[in-house]
Amino acid sequence: MEKACVDINELINVFSNTQGSIYQSDKLNCFYVDFGGKFARYNCLSLQKLKKIVENIDVEALLLNTNRADFELVTFNGCEHIYLLSALEIVALKDLLHGTFTMFKLNHMVNDCLNRLVY
Amino acid sequence: MKDLMRIKCLISQDIETLLNQQIKKEAHSSSLYLSMSSWCDQNGFDFSADYFAKQSEEERVHQLKLFKYVLDMGGNAVSPEVTGIKTEFAGFREVFEDALEAEIAITQSFKNIASRCHKEQDFVTMEFLNWFLKEQREEEYKARRALELFEVIGEEGTGRWEIDKHVNKITYSEQ
User: Fold this and answer.
1) How many domains does chain B have?
2) What range does the domain containing A66 cover?
3) Is the ipTM of this complex over 0.90?
């Protein structure tokens, strides 16, 4: 999906690092991952799956294995997107997703304190 | 910003992961009990074979109960791959020793999830787990009592035949 197809002003930047950003659309209840030259839309479940898959990639083993290239293909069942990532990009994507889910936790705590627990 | 993850799912990802691990453990227990049932049947311990077959069914029910909870709360329940089931046992007593060890591991695993629930203040899942914690009292009692029969009756002579006859009669009552 091209960035131009989405009104970026309607999106909330959840987390960014030097390599990319993750946005949330409150209107469409979905997320957009801007990473590796790709602007991809995810729902809650698929974003969680992406995080699990990226988290499980052993970067150290990837670098130490001399029988294969230092690249990893990242995709999963039901996902429209495929990433071909170098070790450095994997580290950056791990950081991006980790930061995003930390922000989700923080947002959950803020919502609890400001809206759900105050009556 | 909308709390989309919470809107979608009641349980946290950590709890979901632990519950999915538990689903796998229950599936493993169910298969292990079935394997024990097979071994007992082949070695002439028919009553014990029935006992382990029933235990296997119970573990399967536990697995499905956890599976349904994860789905009902909006999570992703994973159908587990079960491998490495022990099929050979050194003797009749070892089967029961392994059964008790499996139950102890399951209890410990539930305690671990309960501990995580307390940490996260997930009292909804904690309340759900209470049923399993209570169930483990019975499961461990039955496994321990079965092993106790080996001490009380003894394996000599017709001992194993007697033990086999009594295993299926073990019941647990809170009173």
Assistant:
1) 1
2) 3-116
3) no
